[in-house]
Amino acid sequence: MVTIGAFGFLLACVFGSYLVSGGAMAPLIEAVPFELWTIGGAAIGTFVMSNSMHDVKHTLASFGKIMKGASFRKTDYVELLSLLYYLVKLA
Description:
Blueprint: H1 2-20, H2 25-50, H3 53-61, H4 63-68, H5 74-90
């Protein structure tokens, strides 16, 4: 859920700043599908070329787990930050 909110914030900042600076949205809206197609195709092609077929199949099989993200809790982050603070003070 945080990822969706962060993505919405990202889009609002990028397109909001573009609109405030006087940009027209019509050319952007027309170009978006082709830009996403180009970027997505390049990303997928690069991924397939740079990994073995075993890795590609394993990634596709684990795609749901990848998108779900880690199951860390707030206490895990607090513990890590405490350790980092201790190590910085020690140095």
